[in-house]
Amino acid sequence: MVSGVLLSVLACQAHALCSTVATTPVGFGSVSSIVARTTVQPSSTLNAGLRCSGSLLSVLALNDHVYATVTSTRAGLVGPTGDVITYNIYATNNTGAVYLINRGTQYDFARNSILDLLGLLGSVTPKTVPMYFGTITGNNVAAGVYTETLSIFWDWNYCSGIGALGACLGRDINSGTVTLTVSMTVNNDCTVSAPNISFGGAPVVSGFSTINQSINISCTKGSPYTVGLDAGQNASAGRRRMVSGSNSLSYDIFKGAGTTVWGSVGAARRSSSDAEVNPGNGLGIGSQVFNYNAKVYTDQLTPAAGSYLDNVILDVGF
Predict the structure, then answer these.
(1) 12: which residues sit within 8 A by CB, 6+ positions away?
(2) CB of 145 within 8 A of CB of 183?
(3) Which domain holds residue 35?
(4) Cα(70)–Cα(155) distance, rounded to whole angstroms?
(5) Contact 239/252 with Cβ under 8 angstroms?
(6) What Å distances lie between residue 200 and 164, 205, 243, CA to CA?
(7) Do residues 197 and 171 share a domain?
(8) Among candidates 131, 11, 140, 145, which has minimal Cα distance to 66?
């Protein structure tokens, strides 16, 4: 007689554990001060410091959680002059309010189907948890490198193995703190409003009126700069010239209400501290106004009738 023993094998689903790991920094890149102030800048990290080396449960119970609590000694990205760029933190690349991670408040990655969205549920590939970021517009800041170091406290408690009958075979309960560096480089930039100069018409060179106008410039907060006007396309003998075919009409552009030619090199340029309105370094928000006057030289022969034109390049230097 042959006797046998029936061995009952209980099938179970085992799950590897989670752990905190060194993070991957967040970089917003290099942007102009104007773009940083007016346009939301997105960024992200694929590794916010929590790594699960195998699949989590396909269904999370109500008492399971994966908390992240983000804190910092700062209120945002801080630059060299103390200016701050504020930003939001999100659990996914969806910027809806339900995914917003408020500083100092536990955010549960186990809720709102986030772990499903991240592909951690049912996965057999080790994965790290990402975080997403978006700047808040309206920050009027100086140029420079802006940084912040976040502290992220991860705290998790979930069933780490299920028996054949659905019973929990064990729980993964642990916590850990990681740091995450966030940075952005802000570059100098300006907006310029410069009207065309029109002398109108006159029968002789002495009939052209003096034109008094202004150039409005808005540059990065705190940045000194200079403004230059080049000699135009047709300069000759130290004077700017408008041309019509082979004929020319000499003129110039002078600083403020004076007689000093506004040029593009050295002392011929104008500094931000020389503005007639709001002199000094750039304001970021609000314009600095540079007045000028333009005249047709009267010590020249009146050229043939025609439409005379020149193009002058304005440049801003930091």
Answers:
(1) 161, 162, 163, 164, 169
(2) yes
(3) 12-187
(4) 12
(5) yes
(6) 92, 11, 15
(7) no
(8) 131
Same domain for 28 and 177, yes or no, is: yes
Reduce the DSSP state of residue 140 to 3 states and report it. coil
Overall average pLDDT of the 88-102 stretch: 94
- Rounded mean pLDDT of 262-280? 98
End-to-end CA distance of the chain, in Å?
A: 100
Q: Is the pLDDT of residue 14 over 50?
A: no
142/222 Cα distance (integer angstroms): 6
The answer to whether 222 touches 142, Cβ cutoff 8 Å, is: yes
Instruction: Indicate whether 2 pLDDT > 50.
Output: no
pLDDT value for 10:
36
Task: List, for residues 26-79, the tens digit of each pLDDT value.
Answer: 999 999 999 999 999 999 999 999 988 755 544 566 778 899 999 999 999 999
Domain presence at residue 2: no
Backbone angles phi, psi at 266, to 5 degrees: 55, -130
pLDDT at 164 over 70: no
Could you give the number of structural domains in the chain? 2
The burial of 173, by beta-carbon neighbours within 10 Å (0-12 exposed, 13-18 middle, 19 or more buried), is given as exposed
* The amino acid at 61: A
Mean per-residue pLDDT, 122-149: 91
Residue 291: count of CB within 10 angstroms of its CB: 16
Residue with tokens 């310029």: 192
| pLDDT reading at 232 higher than 50 | yes
Residue 9: the pLDDT is 35
Q: Which residues contact 151 (CB under 8 A, 6 or more apart)?
A: 70, 71, 72, 177, 178, 179, 180
